[in-house]
Specification:
By secondary structure, the chain is mostly helical. 86% of the residues lie in helices and 0% in strands. Helix 1 packs antiparallel against helix 2.
């Protein structure tokens, strides 16, 4: 799911996956 969000929104998604990890 995180990967999909990152691909859909590289701007906001980029911070999302990093914050979770």
């Amino acid at each position: 799911m995180i990967l999909l969000v990152s691909t859909a929104v590289p701007s906001a998604g980029r911070l999302s996956p990093q914050d979770l990890i």
